UniProtKB/TrEMBL annotation:
<keyword id="KW-0143">Chaperone</keyword>
<keyword id="KW-0697">Rotamase</keyword>
<feature type="domain" description="PpiC">
    <location>
        <begin position="204"/>
        <end position="301"/>
    </location>
</feature>
<dbReference type="InterPro" id="IPR046357">
    <property type="entry name" value="PPIase_dom_sf"/>
</dbReference>
<dbReference type="Pfam" id="PF09312">
    <property type="entry name" value="SurA_N"/>
</dbReference>
<keyword id="KW-0574">Periplasm</keyword>
<keyword id="KW-0413">Isomerase</keyword>
<dbReference type="InterPro" id="IPR050280">
    <property type="entry name" value="OMP_Chaperone_SurA"/>
</dbReference>
<dbReference type="InterPro" id="IPR015391">
    <property type="entry name" value="SurA_N"/>
</dbReference>
<keyword id="KW-0732">Signal</keyword>
<protein>
    <recommendedName>
        <fullName>Parvulin-like PPIase</fullName>
    </recommendedName>
</protein>
<dbReference type="InterPro" id="IPR027304">
    <property type="entry name" value="Trigger_fact/SurA_dom_sf"/>
</dbReference>
<dbReference type="GO" id="GO:0016853">
    <property type="term" value="F:isomerase activity"/>
</dbReference>
<feature type="signal peptide">
    <location>
        <begin position="1"/>
        <end position="35"/>
    </location>
</feature>
<dbReference type="InterPro" id="IPR000297">
    <property type="entry name" value="PPIase_PpiC"/>
</dbReference>
<dbReference type="Pfam" id="PF00639">
    <property type="entry name" value="Rotamase"/>
</dbReference>
Length: 453
């Protein structure tokens, strides 16, 4: 397993949410030096700073020119439309304004990455972009590209916008493979050390967490906390955690939707350990104050290190369904469900259930490849307690009728052996490439010529 590096929690040195006065105070507190004693090249702002003119002089507009390449308002609108669609439109005006600014910053980074790849003669052919686009259509929509084209246009985005994002990601990955990856080295001793620690931790709990991090200074703490609270509220109303992490999080995990991967509590900052331990799968927590800002945590899943997870068992199930007559009352439906459940309990295992179902006018569907973890959460633990031939209590609705699941067999998951030497080495290399990539992108930002229109 890839160790979680502390750099994932070390964020930007300061973040300008407010006026220049707030920035100067933050720098003064962090540096503790005067102009006279500062080393050459260090930024120094006096404590008694006076602002001449508007304390927020930049006109923040929706378009920009990055080293000569134009980012239009339409570019921003089409990216924003995808996030709005992912959140079922539940985004208020203030949130929309902040999201628009974040998207513009993301587009600036994307433009810099594409430009750098082009300057280094790293090319991405249209055919490759179209192939990735088709794969996205299949994986995320279960439909062909024409159907996804129509969907994107319907929500206010466009195929061109998504293809540009794909081109940016492919260009950057290819550039890193040529200019960064060849210079990354992970020794055998490092890999063996991680493998030994992994085996020593066998049986301990691991948590797959998502995070959204917002940086804050003492001066911006109140406003950042307010922003983080608004994000939590949007998420609890059904917002997409992955979408918000990609657009708002200032951690390096933002590019993967905030996914920290599998971690143990000891690998987390102390402020997050207790919170993570008490979370249930699918639960959200935050804002949590940590050094330098606030974190929002989401527990994606939980397991034990190198231990078979019962939820990975493959189940053979029969679903017996009995429809209700149209217009049936709730009382009558309950009576019919009770009688149905009693009849199913009288069935002598899966071999007998088809005959019993036929006498009741019920339908039987069999599936021998159901993974327990793919069942709804409220059914997972219950079905794992069954023995072959036993059934779960009836469930359903007045419209859909009543259904019963019977367990016919179960193949338990094998004990997890953990990553191989080669897999772990690749994970460690990827982690180091990602860190170098962050530095690379910071350099591109620093040297960029950006005009806001």
């Amino acid at each position: 397993m890839q160790a979680v590096n502390r750099s994932r929690f070390l964020k930007r040195a300061f973040q300008c949410f407010g006026s220049l006065v707030a920035v100067s105070a933050a720098l003064g507190a962090a540096q503790g030096v005067s102009a006279q004693s500062a080393p050459q090249g260090q930024i120094v702002i006096p404590d008694n700073v006076k602002i001449f003119g508007d304390d927020n002089p930049n006109m923040r507009r929706a378009t920009a020119v990055v080293n000569g390449d134009v980012i239009t308002g339409t570019d921003v609108d089409q990216r924003l439309a995808l996030i709005v669609a992912a959140n079922q439109g539940k985004i208020d005006a203030e949130e929309m304004k902040r999201l628009r600014l974040q998207i513009l910053r993301n587009l600036i980074d994307e433009t810099l990455q594409i430009q750098e790849a082009k300057a280094a003669d790293v090319s991405v052919e249209d055919a490759e972009v179209n192939q990735s686009y088709a794969r996205v259509a299949q994986q995320n929509f279960g439909q062909n590209t024409a159907a996804m084209d129509a969907y994107l246009k319907r929500v206010g985005s466009s195929p061109e916008s998504l293809k540009r994002q794909i081109r940016g990601e492919l260009s950057w990955q290819r550039l890193l493979q040529r200019n960064v990856q060849p210079f990354i080295n992970v020794s055998d001793d490092e890999v063996n050390d991680v493998l030994a620690r992994l085996k020593a931790a066998k049986g301990t709990d691991e948590y797959r967490l998502g995070e959204i991090y917002l940086a804050a200074t003492p001066e911006t703490r109140e406003q950042v906390y307010k922003n983080a609270s608004q994000i939590v509220q949007q998420l609890r109303q059904g917002g997409s955690f992955v979408a918000y992490a990609r657009q708002y999080s200032q951690a390096s995990t933002a590019s993967v939707g905030g996914d920290l991967g599998w971690v143990r509590l000891a690998q987390l900052p102390a402020e997050l350990q207790t919170v993570a331990r008490d979370l249930d799968t699918g639960q959200l927590a935050g804002p949590i104050e940590v050094p330098g800002g606030f974190d929002i945590l989401y527990l994606i899943d939980k397991r034990q290190v190198l231990t078979a997870d019962p939820r990975d068992a493959i189940l053979s199930l029969k679903q017996i369904s009995l429809p209700f007559p149209k217009g049936v009352s709730e009382a009558e439906a309950s009576r019919r469900a009770e009688a149905f459940a009693k009849a199913m309990k009288a069935a002598k295992g899966c071999g007998d259930v088809d005959g019993v179902a036929k006498t009741l006018g019920a339908q039987v569907v069999t599936n021998d490849q159901v993974k327990a973890r793919d069942l709804p959460g409220q059914l997972q633990n219950a079905v794992l307690q069954l023995s072959p031939g036993e059934t779960l209590p009836p469930f359903g609705s007045l419209e859909d009728g009543v259904r019963i699941l019977m367990l016919c067999g179960r193949d338990d998951a094998q004990s997890e052996s953990g990553p191989s030497f080669e897999q772990l080495q690749a994970q460690l290399e990827d982690d180091r490439v990602n860190k170098r990539a962050q530095t690379y992108l910071r350099d591109l930002r620093r040297d960029a010529v950006i005009e806001y229109n």
